[in-house]
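It would be a great kindness if you could assist me with a short task in structural biology. Thank you for your consideration; the sequence and its tokens are set out here.
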Amino acid sequence: MKGKIFKDLVNALDDLVFVKDSQHRWVFLNDACCQFWGFSREELIGKSDFDIFPKEQAEVYWAKDQEVFQTKKTILNIEEQTIEGRLYIISTKKSIYRDEESGEEYIVGTIRDITDEQRARDAVKESEEQFRHLADYSPNMIFINQKGRIVYVNNKCTEVMGYSLEEFLSPEFDFMSIIAPEYRKTVKSAFQKHIRGEETPGYDYVLITKNGKRIDSIITTKLINYHGDTAILGIITDISTHKRIEEELRRSEERYRALFNNSVNAIYILDKAGRILEVNQVAGELLGYSRGELLEMKLNDLAGSAYPNRKKKSKGEAESDRVYETVHVSSDGRGIPVEINTRPIVFEGKPAVLAVSRDITERRNAQKELKEKEAQLLHSQKMEAIGRLAGGIAHDFNNLLTAVLGYAELLVMDHESGDKQREYAKEIKSAAERGALLTRQLLAFSKRQVLLPRKLDIDVLIKNLENMMRRVIGENIAVSVLNGSGGKCIKADPGQIEQILVNLLVNSKDAMPKGGSIDIETGVEYLENRRCHFGQEVVPGEYVYLEVRDTGVGIPGELSTLVFEPFFTTKELGKGTGLGLSTVYGIVNQNRGCLFMDSTPGAGTKIRVVFPVYAE
């Protein structure tokens, strides 16, 4: 009864618990072990680390076990463990246990998966390093004040203020000594609000450098956690130059006009009713209206009736009209997506609104491209999942077919020619061979086919296959071959490249039931800034290509990606396995190649596969 309670308790633990004998073989494992490693208890009992883990990792575990047996001491380790191709970080504890009755020694071990914890620690460390890197190269002064002491300053602080890093970080350094006396009360009040958990907006104040120079600044502060304790992060912007520029702008209408008209954005000044009082040159260039025409309009007149007036982006009532998106219609009727940023100003002594309009066409295009990439990623993941499933089924099925073929061959040998049983056995063997061919295609698609890659000249391979190609294609289809690889080779399994060529030829042949022509072309090309058929970017470099063109029925655009999925076929039931093009896709990916397809219904199909040039 006590033994059952012990086992139930151990099996209820989330941590992995195991016991090994002196031969490093498991004699006990809890449920967590079996679940984490993906084996049943019966499969693991009596086995060692070498039976389920990569050799390099198993050798490390064996050495640690041996150390426990020899030293009789408990050992704690942080180790790596690979399970089904995924790398885990584990914390292990191994202790010696001696059976008092038998005198046998055992290792009692516990394992905890700390992968997420380790990654979190690494992420925090990386985040801190990134912060320091960004802060040290920031044009603003950045500091961290913790309990009234400066615990961090960036390079800009020492450069502008004239104090060394050691002086800033000294316990004797008084932060308030660098604040102008008339602003110290404001800064202290802001810090106290932060400590109480209240947010404070940025505010102006004056810094005093080591040599007594006054610097007009804006400080923005935020309460943060720094090394486990509360602290205040401050970002200081030197606005002395900005203030001088503002003063100059107030004195100089000409300088204001230059800045206004040379902005990259369209700028409008509006009265409270939305009428345009002033506009810069960019607005006229963007919309195709003259300045005079725009001054007779309201800003809302620029949004055509076919487009929504605005799409609010800001949150909260106070921010609702400050930033929004809309579409402005140019004089020639083009819709231009824009982002409008508005703020109250004083213009010619009266309240007005400054509206800055930014053309966001490129942003919209980027968003569209992002959605396309997301779709490509989903398709890639789907093909990967299908490949894994197909590969697993094909592998197991192939093992079954091997047995069927073997026994069928034995039956053929056991019966004389003309014997009916012999003919039955031959039929069984033929069906099994067809099944084996299907499994090889599935394995090629799933990248699990055993390969024998070598240096390969595609032109030579095609020449050797010419007679076979003629038989595959038939007499009612004209075939031309244009070899142009010029001796440039690739590294691949010849059988796989033959399989690509045959599958493409059969696909072209089936697309021309009434005859036609097929062109086979090879060559060398340098690719860059290109995307494969499924949208993946091509690695820039020199490639050998194999292209098959036909004058068949073509492939509709909506099927251009589906035709490469396993078991998808447009042929009649019983006339196609749907594995031809999916096999081509799998082989190309397996050999670091890329596939391009161009097809027009009624005008034929062109499929080009490329492989990196082999560099010895």
